[in-house]
Amino acid sequence: MTQTTTLHDRTVGQIAAQLPGASGVFRRFGIDFCCHGDVPLAEAANRRNLDLGALETALSALDPAAAPDAPQDTGALIDHIQTRYHATHRRQIPELIELSRKVEAVHANHPEVPRGLSDALHRIWGELEVHMKKEELVLFPAMRRQAADRLAVPISEMRHDHDDHGAFLDQVAQLTHDYTPPQDACRSWQALYAGAAQLKADLMEHIHLENNVLFPRFETTA
Ligand SMILES: [Fe+2]
Ligand SMILES: [Fe+2]
């Protein structure tokens, strides 16, 4: 198919932005499509020692004419980012901090205890709150007004913050053995890792929508 022959030259960010369902395929293959979306598909596969053909086949099985993963209109997309992601992070992270503190205290002597996870969550919670406030109070209103001329600096600051958020996700993956609880994990521990995995999925999709879909609309005219 034409789609297959051109996929490997496009960046993973472009593919995730243009092909409905592609972000799910990237997540399955462990490809970072949000913070490092500027990498061509072939190179992204190569970096992770993945079979490029299998990856292209999975992407080609998606329907390019399917409903998009997020609204296309800029105002509606910003609304979606705020209601689906900002609000969800504000709800989910404090719960995870609480749960993590409990698991770390109750299982302090367990060899696989995710020591430091609650501190990491607490830190990202503070950073994300400041970051989301900047988007909500400054950047997004300017984007809604289509004031593209002075957005290059704030957008690059947001992209930098996103890289830090990506580093946080790497740290959580390491602390939780890639979100895998031990065999004898209690329900709280299992819930903590399930919640942390959900946070990872949400944060990646959130960053992807900003880095690969929303921000480029205001960078081409800068
Ligand atoms: Fe955001
Ligand atoms: Fe952001």
From TrEMBL:
InterPro entries: Hemerythrin-like (IPR012312), RIC_family (IPR019903). It comes from the Bacteria. Keywords: Cytoplasm, Iron, Metal-binding. It is found in: Cytoplasm. Residues 79-217 form the Hemerythrin-like domain. Pfam families: Hemerythrin (PF01814), ScdA_N (PF04405). One of its GO terms (cellular component) is cytoplasm. The keyword Phosphoprotein does not apply. One of its GO terms (molecular function) is metal ion binding. The keyword NAD does not apply. NCBIfam families: FeS_repair_RIC, PRK10992.1. This is Regulator of cell morphogenesis and NO signaling. It comes from Paracoccus solventivorans.
